[in-house]
Amino acid sequence: MSSFLKEIAGPSAALLLVALLVALTTRNFLDPGNISNLILQVSIVAIIAIGSTMVILAGGIDLSPGSAIALMTMVFATLIKFYGWPLLPAIIAVLLLGLLLGLINGALTAYVRIPSFITTLAALSAFRGVAFMFNNGSPIFQLSPVLEQLFYSSVFGIPLPLFYVVICYGLAYWFLTYTAPGRAIYAVGGNANAARLSSINVERVQLIAFAIAGAAAGLGAILMSARLNSGSPNYGVGLELAAIAAAVIGGTSLAGGRGNVINTVIGAMTIVVVQNGLNLNAVPTSAQNVVIGAIIIIAVGIDMWRSELLGFFARRNK
Amino acid sequence: MPSQVPLWELRNVTKAFPGVVANDNVSVALFSGEIHGLLGENGSGKSTLIKIISGAHQPDSGTILKNGAPVGIPSPAAARAHGIATVFQEFSLVPTLTVAENICLGRLPLRHQHVDWDAMRKRAEQMLTRMHVKIDPAAVVASLSVAEQQLVEIAKALAADARMLILDEPTTALGLTEIAQLHSLLKRLKAAGTAVLYISHRLDEVVELVDVATIMKDGRIVCEAAETRIDIPFIVRRMIGEITEHFPKEETSRNEIVLDVSAIATQNRVHDVSFTVLRGEVLGLGGVLGSGRTEIARAVFGIDRLTAGEIRWKGKRVEFSSPEEAIRAGIAYVPENRKSDGLFFNLTGFPNMSIARLDKLGGRFSLSLRRETEEGQRLVEDLEISPAAETKTVDLLSGGNQQKIVIGRWLFAGAELFILDEPTQGIDIGAKVAIYKLINTLTRAGHSVILISSDHDELLAMSDRIAIIRHGRVEAVRHAREISKLDLVRASNANLEDVA
């Protein structure tokens, strides 16, 4: 337990610092309306980032979830609007489709041995291409009033998406910490050779990581459709990079094997709080993007130079 | 004959890092035309000393003198300009470039502002010829064996016209002939007036080579060059600071065959190999690098598939098609290269030990971290692993502790046969003795060991029987007591001659 607290201490402190700065420089940051708006904003990228974190921990990278979401919102919308499927079967179908897309990425990476960067770069292009094949490439609107409720309702004043995020991160943390496949993801990302010699089925572990990423993208697609009550081949552009940024700001090492999934949601919140602060201070979007870029560099820089920085301060304090 | 004024001298040099004084008031004098051994256990401060001389670290206090005059070495480039060349343990070669390009890297010969490829090739050829090494300068480094890469690394250092050459563990990857080649090269350099600073864990080769030696312990010099006697027992005592039996072999072999390998072959250089391993026995596999020892281990462990013959494990015929099956049956393989094949540097000690049998920590979906901690603490105690293993990732532990953790992994997995491939390579004397004691613990408990080692003394002292491997075949199996070091070395040398 104490090691868990130690692991999340850095990113949590960074988030608190950022939140404090924003709270001090703006008037509305702590308004309940603004806070629940933040939760709605962070929820989709946070859920996708679970998958990105798993894949990165296993030593790969996933560039496809943004496009996968566009494709899945179109499939979802088509099933509901043109085939008249009820909501629940449509949701299950989209989750299974996400799993399948993840398995395709995983199989190409693990068994055909194409590096995941290439596999998912191809998927980034291909999935969005397929998305445009539905409904002649036009968005599909007005899916279902009930669907919207899945995103915008609250229970006891707490927006529903917060529950989804908490449940998903709880599951992800439990999976990575308390199951054999979860531990194997760390082992494969840390040293695939040693993992193989320790009786771990490296290919299957990679496949599992991508399958989880696919399922997470499926859930993200449902939330995206619910939020906008529509499907569109243009949804999710750049979302994969936001998800990777969340993982990286949370301290997940792109080299694989190092990181804690709870820090990913902290990283995602950090990004959203900064964006919110800049918005409330009327900073233009162009400058906001520059700031997000700077935060990525600072977060990774602090992580990489941690021991040197600690040494520097230790000498200063002597 | 060494001149009166040292070429390089460190006087009262101190260097501290957070939490540790790595070099404490250290003074060393290095003369032209002298091979100077720098000895000490891991963590004794040798690496820091080398890094100070080669400009990678700056001392907190003390002076560096060149030919008696104080100088600063603010950077590795400054060290090179001073004629100091360092061959570090980690290779600094670019694997995708050719041998010639690597040798001339940083000093590419130019003509009209363009690289002069002919001159470069010639310079590389000259260097390699001078070293009596047959390597094609046009070969891509990645295609060379580790031993060849090591030689290229040395050629690269020499190409800089070094007046002082520093070698940090240069022979870890080398076979006997290559070591002999390297030593004769160093002796020629010495005769030509180069100063050599030589760091090695293999004391037998140190005493053959060096003129003087300095011994370090805990960041201090415990025995200056003038006092050091160049003989192994003396050095061992001063290095570890207490009198310890170097090879504490216990005989626990029982008359029960656990592994019976008969006439096996693989596509990976194993031909018609037969041997047995008894319960409680250490069977040594002797032979040179590349003779097929590791390949035999791979066959037994189920990495390489058998093309002929059979293996009987505890009386039953087995055919492992993967390491997983071998592990389930109770066979463990501790690979030669801990870093690339053994350890998970991203994990702390306990997960490193439980990884091969996570099912022992409970069901597929409920790892008991409490049980992992209990078992881990028990292994830390049994194997005398540093308690830091519980909280630190294993990249922060010493080589000896790392090796014990890999062995601990297989104890946790319930292994009964331990195949140890070069288990003491690159770890210091104290940790070596600890590994030997660990081997005794294993055999005393009725486990068996297959020991693969290029260290002849170690192999002779720790094995009950030795199988000499040559060209992927078993040449002979003898009791260790009936075979002398000379026999073993001769077998290896004969082997090399008819390879060439």
| Element-level helix/strand string of chain A | HHHHHEHEEHHHHEHHHH
**CATH architecture grouping of the largest domain in chain B:** 3-Layer(aba) Sandwich
Query: Beta-strand level of the residues of chain A, as a percent range?
Result: under 5%
The total number of structural domains of chain B is: 2
Extract low-pLDDT stretches of chain B.
494-500
Please tell me about this protein's structure.
The complex is a heterodimer of chains A (318) and B (500). Chain A has 318 residues and is an all-alpha fold. Chain A has a single domain (2-288), classed as ABC transporter involved in vitamin B12 uptake, BtuC (Orthogonal Bundle). Helix content of chain A is 75%, strand content 3%. Chain A has 14 helices and four strands. Chain A has a two-stranded antiparallel ribbon. Chain A has a two-stranded antiparallel ribbon with strand order 2-3. In chain A, strand 2 (154-155) and strand 3 form a beta hairpin. In chain A, helix 12 packs antiparallel against helix 13 (285-304). Chain A is globular. The two termini of chain A are 31 Å apart. Chain B has 500 residues and is an alpha/beta fold. Chain B folds into two domains: 8-240, 3-Layer(aba) Sandwich (Rossmann fold), CATH 3.40.50; 257-499, P-loop containing nucleotide triphosphate hydrolases (Rossmann fold). Chain B has 17 helices and 22 strands. Chain B has helices at residues 46-53, 76-81, 99-104, 117-130, 146-158, 176-191, 203-209, 232-240, 293-300, 323-329, 338-342, 349-354, 369-382, 399-412, 429-444, 456-462, 485-499, and strands spanning 8-17, 20-30, 35-39, 61-66, 69-71, 84-87, 110-111, 114-115, 164-168, 195-199, 212-217, 220-223, 257-266, 270-278, 282-286, 306-313, 316-318, 331-334, 417-421, 448-452, 465-470, 473-479. In chain B, the strands form five sheets. Chain B has a six-stranded mixed beta sheet, with helices on both faces. Chain B has a six-stranded mixed beta sheet with strand order 18-19-20-15-21-22, sandwiched between helices. The chains are: A mainly alpha (318), B alpha/beta (500). The interface between A and B is medium-sized, with 30 and 32 residues.
